[in-house]
Amino acid sequence: MSQLVSLNPEEMEPRDAYRLFLSIVAPRPIAWVSTVSKDGRLNLAPFSFYTGVSSKPLTALISVGARRGNLKDTLRNAQETGEFVINVVNEDLAPAMNLTSGEWPADIDEFAIAHLTPQPSVDVKPPRVAESPISLEAKVSQVVPVEGTSSTLIIGRILRIHLRNDLLRDNGLVDPLLLRPITRLGGDEYGTVGRVFSMPHPSL
Ligand SMILES: Cc1cc2nc3c(=O)[nH]c(=O)nc-3n(C[C@H](O)[C@H](O)[C@H](O)COP(=O)(O)O)c2cc1C
Asked: In the CATH scheme, what is the homologous superfamily, with its name and number, of domain 10-188?
């Protein structure tokens, strides 16, 4: 039988603990977040500390870390304008998504860098990524600094869902094998959707 390793993250190099943690909290979905600055500059960056948090109204959150003590453009824009769009990354879009994660200065438009098309949204100012199969328009409902950390949660109410109609099945669900989303694992590793199986909910 293999041995168990027990580690106290407080006694580890913070970077090592963080890297290990990221490979444990995995796979993570990726929110490819488009925002605009208050003077109208476009921004696009991926965030995998991302999850849905409420069903009514539909609400999602992303967690944004600090960059050497400075705010990332996504957080500044979301805070200043109160709006963002979450775009889904499929396998075809993986290289473009990766490009947009570079530490580009605030005046650089990541849509242009990655040769992506900004498509006007319906209910919010930030455009969606036209090439993305699904986009969620969101309005910021809360910006929550996480106590004792340099991370901030952006919580947003989903105002509108755009999705490619071939992905939607008769049961109202997106077909994951057609969508082919990528997920973030540890380090530079990514995953794709493997075997899909169903388990009916237990009826009591
Ligand atoms: C797949 C992926 C997931 C990422 N997830 C996060 C995350 O959850 N939180 C975060 O602060 N940065 C995350 N990053 C790093 C940001 O994308 C990166 O710092 C980016 O430059 C931020 O851009 P901005 O300054 O335009 O907002 C991730 C990068 C990649 C490639």
From this structure: Electron Transport, Fmn-binding Protein; Chain A (2.30.110.10)
